[in-house]
Amino acid sequence: MDKKQALLTGALTGLIALGLSSGAMADDKAAKEKCYGVAKAGKNDCASSDGSHSCAGQAKTDNSATDWKYVAKGTCEKLGGSTKAGEKK
Q1: What's the Rg (C-alpha) of the chain?
Q2: 14 or 63: which carries more pLDDT confidence?
Q3: Cβ-proximal residues to 23 (8 Å cutoff; 6+ apart), any chain
Q4: Could you tell me the residue ranges of all domains in the chain?
Q5: Within 10 Å of residue 25's Cβ, how many Cβ atoms?
Q6: Assign residue 80 a region: left if phi > 0, alpha if psi is -120 to 50, beta otherwise?
Q7: How confident is the model at residue 14 (pLDDT cuts 50, 70, 90)?
Q8: pLDDT at residue 64, as a whole number
Q9: Cβ–Cβ under 8 Å, residues 73 and 32
Q10: How confident is the model at residue 5 (pLDDT cuts 50, 70, 90)?
């Protein structure tokens, strides 16, 4: 196999792997839900609902009602959180 063919084969293999992994991530997200009020400081999954920060890992306090974390679907309230921003059980 020459260099050009090896490069093409590697690129195609990478694209196939990427496609397969993105499908698995979509399935994983479908089995999860956003849970507000359970993220520890610096352990949130994305932006806060009140706009105080715009990225994961920037929560300033534990269990803020505006910061969220993905949890298994149906477990949020059992953990003391809420699926609605700004509410905390």
Answers
A1: 19
A2: 63
A3: none
A4: 1-30, 32-89
A5: 9
A6: left
A7: low
A8: 94
A9: yes
A10: confident
**Residue 49's closest CA among 73, 77, 69?**
69
Q: Distance between CA atoms of 86 and 89, rounded to whole angstroms?
A: 10
Query: Which residue reads 């920060």 in tokens?
Result: 53
For tokens 């994305």, name the residue. 46
Q: Hey, is 38 helix, strand or coil?
A: coil
CA distance 1 to 19: 25
* Mean pLDDT, residues 9-30 taken together: 64
Contact in structure between 66 and 36 (CB atoms under 8 Å): yes
Q: What span, in angstroms and rounded, lies between the C-alpha atoms of 23 and 20? A: 5
- Mean pLDDT calculated for residue range 60-76: 95
| Other CB atoms within 10 A of residue 68 CB | 26
Global model pTM greater than 0.70: no
